[in-house]
Predict the 3D structure of the following.
Amino acid sequence: MRSWTFFLSALGVGLVFFLAALGLGNDYVFFAGYVVLQYIVLATAWNILGGYCGYVNFGTAAFFALGAYSSVALHKLGANVNRYASGFLADILHLILPLSLPSLVIVGGIVSGIVGLGMGYLTLRLRGVFFAIATLAMAVVLQTLMINWDFVGGSRGAYVIRPNSISAGPVTLSYIEYLFLVMLVLAVVALTVARLIERSRLGIGFSTIRDDEMAAEAAGVPTLRLKLIATMISGAFMGMAGAPLPYYLGYIEPSSAFGLPYAVNSIAMPMIGGTTSWVGPLIGAILLGSLQQIATVTISSAVNLLIVGVLLVAFVIIAPAGIVGLVESWRRTRARAAS
Amino acid sequence: MSIDLLMNAIVAGLLLGGFYAAVTVGISISFGMLDVVNIAHPAFIILGSYIAYIVNTHFGIDPILIAVLALPAFYLLGAAVYQLYYWAFERRGQEALRGLAFFFGLLFITEVGLILVFGVDYRYVEAVYIGPTWRLGFLDFPLRMLVPCVVAVLLVVGLQLYLTHTFIGRAIMAVAQDQLALRLLAVDPIRIKRIAFGISIATASLAGALLIIIQPIEPSVGREYIGRVFAICVLGGMGSLPGTLIAAMLLGIVESFTATFYGPSWAPAVAFGFLLLTLAVRPAGILGR
Amino acid sequence: MSQAPLLEVKGVGKRFGGFVALEDIDLDVKEGERLGLIGPNGSGKSTLVNCVCGTLHNETGSVRFAGQALDGLPAHRRTHVGLARSFQLPRPFMSMRVVDNLRVPLLYTVRRRSLLISSQKELDDRCMELLRQVGLDAKAKRMPSDLTQVEMRKLELARAMAAEPKLLIADEAMAGLSHSEIEDIIALLLRLNAQGVTIIMIEHIMRAVMSFSQRLAVLVSGRKIADGAPADVVNNPEVVSAYLGQ
């Protein structure tokens, strides 16, 4: 299937869900669905670097929060242009701000992508574990930065007032429906990009990095450049997924935006689904994401995070290739039995 | 700035650094010598803190004594974790991706498990040396910091003597470099690594007790130490205990200065700057070639 | 054709900690030449290959290739300019099928130079042709983990050949091969050489080296002790005592 065909069919499937949810007329479906979609983006983004290249990023929460905080910063700036700028600059800012949600998503992506590139540039020349450790530490530092940055609320957090609804021509959507729709499109874009990478020369290069960097270099693969590309794409999607968060929550503070659940889920979902193709993170995100949405209603959120942690450990030990791998080996066994 | 403020910042940094050495020494063994990237180490330390907390509040026993009594249990836990890690990842050559995810999962499970049992309230221990401060001229030596620092230095020195003066110790130092040579000496590298990993986790028991003496803890405190321990381990030259001690003191002083002159909320960022700088400029560490 | 050598190694030295792996190595290889590089285990042959190919960086000396200084160039750039090597211990891409292993140098090296291999079919044909040359065509769709050690060596060689190098360094490509397989590989390398590819063969199997090489260089303990016509080199008393005579 061509990428465009894939993109449009995936979008079609998503829209069917969207219309069905509209038909149900229950906002909770959108609130829960948004989270699952957000995890599809995060898991897919993580997998571009982790699954394809074999470089573990523990800092998903940092990239994600960076996207969220760039939205907050722009929101604050938009609300107080006259306090921070004057003259011509103020005129320009008045013209641009407030940015629409899709533009915020793009800004969040750019900010996180650049940070990813910088991180990668400093650590990717070394062994992979150093990159992993650096991302782990980066989350702590960015959190420290946000706690100390009063403009975006510091440790107290910041309120973001979201509109009740949004209209385009004859169509009027409630804001949560709109958020859901934006995240839906983002998820479809992320999956399309991941699938495109997998089938391209870039994807083959990524696999050689995961398998054996020395042999990859000897075959002519510019490994450092490819790793930087992967880190940038991966970081950018994480930032994009975070950009609408302040509008979804209405309130943002460092300890929730940098929450460990984002880091754990974005690793657990691809690992449980399977890391070698775009299908794995999708399956993992839908399964774990829905499970958690249902579990938070019935049991405490700590318990359901514990479940994710235990599932992650169990899968990496018992089924290293994830659900996709289990299905594949089951198919092979059946095919062998048939022949 | 006044000279006594400066001197006190240095003393506080050295005391803090001594404690950091105890927190890091386990990582220096597991990551530095065995090449096992145990990012869950801080979680084991927090576990040590909670054990000290429980026994201390129920029986009033000294937290350091509790940690010493718990050493064998932590050693066995470490040996078991390594055996599982070896069997599931190292043997298959999957330690890079899945092994890391495994330890990350352990870190997470421990943290969430502790939250479920103890909640997110801060817990602390009682001991005679928590509270009083020795004064030498204008220098302050809070016993709450001094005792952990002394214990930590004893721990590091003791381990260094063990590693350099016993057969098993030397085998541990050799295991990362030359597994083949060990086999020729009829030593099973896996057994050596299991012992070494057990020791590395055992140090977490002591480090945990020291941690809860220094500050009240809650389950997520461990995360703040991940950046620190790896920064120190790398800066110390990956697996050199003297290097670890020096690097820990250095970080302690820098953090103490940051806290004194810029405010404590910036301190966590220092370790990261340290780590990035080390990785970018001198990956072999201060004592490296 | 210019008289400047294709590969010029000048004063190359490399140490690991206190251990001197290479000391002041000079080595010229002319275009179209077949050079045999021999020496006992640990004499620095593979370290020299690694320094030439950019896998390791030499501390002293310089490497020039086709008139261009290679110093500081990362390994993949050296592959792009026409240096290819096989690894002594095979390092196949384990997650890719045998045939896909060969696509990597075709996509990342050959395609940079020309647009000759542009369609998917041409790519596949080229991979199959290379596999046929080393006798692995029957295993094209298998995974590297299904191959024997000997087959992995052949794959290693095929992957180096796939980069269409000017200079091919075959690092112990023949260890463990049977009599007739060695003959096949030598014939293959000779054919490549006849097409203009310069070849450095690192080998322990003296019969293979002697029948293949036009020139022989000997490394012992990180130093080059002899360089010349094979018949002269093997009769050189220093070589005999240091290497062959032991």
